[in-house]
Amino acid sequence: MYRSAVMSAITLSIGLLPHFHVYSADAKIDTPQPAQLTDKLIETTADMERIAITGSRIYREEMSSTAPMTVFTAADIEKSGATSVDVLLQRMSASAGFAGNQTNAYWTEGGYGSTQVNLRGLGVNRTLVLLNGRRMVNSGTGANSSVDLNTIPVSVIERIEVLKDGASAVYGADAVAGVVNIITKQQIDGVELQARSGITEQGDGEQYQFDIALGHVGDRGSAYIAMSYDKTQAVEMLSRAACPLTEQDGELVCSGSSALPGGRGYFLDSNGNPIGEEVKLLPDGSSPYEGERDNYYQYFNAVQPNERINLFAYGEYDVTDNTQFYTEAMFTHRSSQLPATPQTVSGIVIPAWHESNPTEQDFLLNSRRLAEAPREFNIRADTWRVVSGFKGELDNSWQWDVAINYGSNRGSYEVTNVINNARLAEATDYSLCSSDPNIPCADMWGENSLTAEMLDYFLFDMKDNGGNEQFSVTANVTGDLWELPAGTMSFASGVEHRKEKGWNDPDPLKISGDANTAQQDAINGSYTADEIYFEALVPLLSDLPFAKQVDLTAAVRYSYFDTFGGDTNYKLGLQWAVNNELTLRATQSTAFRVPNIPELFGGIDQGYMNTTDPCSEWSQLDPNSNRYANCMAASVPTDYVQEGTILTDRGGNADLKPEEADTFTAGIVWNVAVVEGLSITLDYYKISIENAINSVNGSSKLAACYDSNGMSHPFCSDEHFTRDPLTGEISYLQTQLGNAANEQVSGVDMALFYQKDLGRFTTNTTWEVSYLDQYDIQTYAGAPVESRAGTIGYDGSYTKWRSNLYFDVSEAKWRYSYNIQYIGAADDQYANQGDIGDSVDAVAYHNLQVRYQLNDAIALTGGVDNLFDKAAPYHQSYTDGNTNTMTYDLMGRRYYFAFSWSL
User: Fold this and answer.
1) Cα–Cα nearest to 430, from 363, 373, 344, 491
2) Residues 6+ apart with CB under 8 A from 705
3) Beta-carbon neighbour count of residue 778 at 10 Å?
4) Backbone angles phi, psi at 627, to 5 degrees
5) Which residue, 835, 903, 821, is CA-closest to 874?
6) d(Cα 576, Cα 552) in Å, to the nearest integer?
């Protein structure tokens, strides 16, 4: 009987959904009616082997979880219409904030074109992604800090378990907001084929997907191989947003960039000073500049094109009656092409005597967009992963597992038509280029004035290369220790050795600073971790009034990293089955996130930054203020006045320590006896993060120091800044990454399931709701607390309310599915109250699907996403398309049709 996503969460919460990898080949799963759920929590299922669920390593017959969890089965994924894992997970009510997707044109943790999941909005690198209970290699274009969900083919997924709780005591680092465990099919016997095509109502964004799997199950083993091909075409931004909008005189009007394709600037007098009003350049002269804007949406996509090829293979063989060898292998190739705005030049003087100047006056070019040379980002990423190991059962029925896991990623990131600053300087030094036949002078006067020869001289294609590697060896054992009055005490333990490596080799001109883009040093680093954990399940009470079963779970893990040393984390969980209807549960745990490769080994970039020195003219301050007293105590001259910028170090920091988190959850599971088929879960969560890694700007650092009592703030140490003892000027300032921030998030999750049989029809109604009560960030000690709950900004939506409603009705051949995704209202974090777009209203997306089972082998599926063609809302601090592309749908109504066949 089908269970929808949130019903799966309910059943797993009280012990029904097992972890796949400990089933025997002929194991059967009993799925009782909701009223029987708590009974099944207590009873032993005779025809089921011991299993483990995400968040625990203990194999048990009672499939219970003390922490809130959501499970998406293969049927859930099919009904959602999702063709990639990120689409499914980013729709979850527990997701928030910033994560990569195909409507996101910005750099994310995995590089342009990569996709992630961001549980609770705490950041994609605080959600641990597992494949079959084991870590995945980070992937993207090099030195990345998160898993690219593109690497996992949807067609082989059996289910996805999402643990919404800290789990570092079980899995180690990075499981702060939760764990996403993607579980693939263990066996395929025969041939499975799927094909799908989709298109938007406007006739673009075509999507094609083809999957095929071949497998065989024998007496002593099984094996299968699966291939998936997925291609999505682009959707141009102008087809969804005509222009970037801004408010003017109480109305929204088209805006854009002041960098015009023809250029603009001022004529100069004989002394080189601007004269007259600013003008825009025409091919044969000029005309007054009246504030025209270049519509840069013409260079963008609303949806990025993407092409993926996935290969996945799994095999297992019974070496003996009690020992099995298994292996899984995966390969993914991804390519993405993203258009971008052409680059801009400025500060060029075009002399009157040069042939490109049709006037008799020198001209200062303030800015000009190189529209003749549009840019394109070309991304390639290849990811491999191989896991091999043995698992089995000892004579005392203890289960064991040993595995080797190796993953490798290689990526490249190419940007076409980037300015070579040195060559541009030569091509616009008109005395030089006029006398050197090898240097074509750049004709910047007016639109389309630059020839191919000119562009080829000072433009180049910039290419970065990089990669990631992961190697681990794990060993686990679990079994029963002894019988207690309330049941069997179980135990699990294991060790892990892991090495992570990442590197990024920027283009040589990018390293030297000659490329017209941010200078970047090469990144190359690695770290190793050695870990050991222990976990226990202790039955405390059973078969008592108001305590049908009370179980305590405890786990502890010690991790040693060669970059910072040791760290210990624990987790305690209590599950109290009051009776057949009501179960209470709670967890208290610690978690940690280790600094990733770019944070640890990112190069130091030194530059002059606009920074406010709080001791500038300090003698005019209030003598009773801390700032006055501290500037005097630091011997800053009384007549000191800051002049200019401050030389500042920025970048990675090899001395970073782990982020530390405390997590508490408490909830109930209620099987409503008076309404047959109705079940409800309600969970509260609170996560507090200390020593969060961030970069504090120089002005804030200096102000925090000199405003503290007696210069007691940590930022006052010499590692952060120093002054020249004679002049009082700041001689050194660093804004490298540090462990400075604190974050706190809390909220409530609710899930409801109601199942009802109506004659030959079966209905399933599922409703999941998340309420974000608090998300506070303090960037450093003493800084103002920023509250994100109920806001939206450049880094995504932190609306207080999110919801998903699922409904389906099915009979022997037909299934009708309906989904409503609700995203609550939010205030724009950076807009002034009363401005247009200072907030967004709630948005609801409706999705419909119909499936027809033609016969035992063939099924046909059709669906409509965004059924009512809901437009994305405008808000001021939008990313692209006048909206938040990480939250809202830019594609509009779209249709798809799928065919599946199995033999």
Assistant:
1) 363
2) 630, 711, 713, 715, 716, 720, 721
3) 16
4) -65, -45
5) 835
6) 9
Region 746-756 average pLDDT: 95
pTM of the model: 0.88
Query: Mean pLDDT across the chain, nearest whole number?
Result: 89
For residue 435, give every residue at least 6 positions away whose Cβ sits within 8 Å of its Cβ, in sequence order, or none: none
Closest CA to 792 of 15, 121, 186: 121
Provide the 10 A C-beta neighbour count for residue 360. Answer: 8
Rounded Cα gap, residues 728 and 724, in angstroms: 5
Q: What is the DSSP string of 511-523?
A: HHT-BSS-----E
Collapsing DSSP to helix, strand or coil, 316 comes out as strand
Strand, helix or coil at 599? helix
Tokens of 851: 């499936």
- Predicted local distance difference test score (pLDDT) of residue 51: 65
**Tens-place pLDDT, residues 642-665:** 988 888 888 889 999 999 999 999
Report percent pLDDT > 90 for the chain: 74
φ and ψ of 9, to 5 deg = -65, -40
Tokens standing for residue 180: 């996403």
Instruction: To the nearest 10°, report the CA torsion of 158, 161, 162, 168.
Output: -130
Using an 8 Å Cβ cutoff, are 532 and 558 in contact? yes
**Residue 444 in tokens:** 């910047």
CB 377 within 8 A of CB 112: yes
Could you give the 3-state DSSP secondary structure of residue 570? strand
DSSP 570-609: EEEEEEEE-SSSEEEEEEEEEEEE---HHHHHPPEEEEEE
Amino acid type, 166: G
160-190 pLDDT, tens digit each: 999 999 999 999 999 999 999 999 999 999 9
Q: Give the closest residue to 164 by CA, choosing from 795, 772, 601, 846.
A: 772
Q: Which tokens in the block code for residue 583?
A: 């179960």
Measured between alpha carbons, how far is 770 from 801 in angstroms, rounded to an integer? 6
pLDDT digits (tens, 9 = 90+) for 232-262: 999 999 999 999 999 988 999 999 999 999 9
Structure tokens at 575: 């599950």
Q: Which of 406, 411, 420, 393 is nearest to 320 (CA)?
A: 393
